[in-house]
Specification:
Elements: E1 3-5, H1 11-20, E2 29-33, H2 40-45, E3 48-51, H3 57-64, E4 69-72, H4 81-95, E5 99-105, H5 115-128, E6 133-139, E7 141-142, H6 143-157, E8 159-162, E9 171-172, H7 174-186, E10 193-197, H8 205-216, E11 221-224, H9 227-236, E12 247-249, E13 252-254, H10 256-267, H11 277-282, H12 289-295, H13 297-305
Parallel strand pairs: 1-2, 1-4, 2-3, 4-5, 5-6, 6-10, 7-9, 8-11
Antiparallel strand pairs: 12-13
Amino acid sequence: MRLLITGATGGFAGTALKRLLTKLPAKDLILMSRKPEKLAAYAKLGCEVRYGDYEEPDSIEAAAQGADNMLMISGHKVGYRIAQHSNAIDGAVRAGVKRIVYTSYYGSTADNTALVCQDHYGTEQKLAASGIAWTALRDGMYAQTMADACMPSMVKTGLWVTCTQGGKVSFVDRDDCVDCAVAALLNPGHENHVYNITGTDLWSWRDVADLATEITGKQIEVRDVSDEDFNAFYRAMGIPQDSTSEFNVDGFAWSCDDMISFEREVRKGKFAIVSDDIKLLTGHEPKSFRSFIMDRADELRAAAAA
């Protein structure tokens, strides 16, 4: 069985590759990237490295030749993914790929208006209509996003502005998401199925701020505002309105339209989802958000002291 990994220079793919190389010969892995030169180390190990770009349908078909299964890692431009992912799916179908495992997002249903969910639900619909087998892994909000971007901002400024009004979300360790992707790729029985890859419990922004205070001793104001005031606050920080202009914070791209649409649906309870699908797929319990953050408590204390 040969596996194609898209976006192979990204963080998710990099972790998946390391785990797959412990289970499969390198020659069975095809790595696709817009910058294949960055994968030279994997090529030396015996992986086949190919150029591919979601914006170039023919390049996907060429990259997918000879692949049985494909790990399709989602693009990052919120609001523009469906066309990109459709190119990838169509290219894979033409190349004869038998199954696609897709990194979707939790809460991606027809009635969830968050832009991120519209992207992923639309992609899932495209997969279902493609005629080949698929598996959708609806990953929760990464705990890494909180530890690397959101919580450091909280403790540096002492303020978090939100319009969620106490709505709750589930955070998940990205490593657990990778474990699920590897399991779905290598094991049969997951065809045409949706999994919710979530953490063990639910958190509001107030809960997150309280955890940051517990760790650092720094009090944090959580200010609930209207959608309009939320937009104005983050626009004043220089965050663009949409993802056509990228705004990068510690490796994370943000846009106001994305953030507002997400927080609005958090407010409605659309992301208050907890599942046991990580254990179902991998056999192990997911790492709790609290445990994840406590393992990185020194980093948070350093951010508070900066």
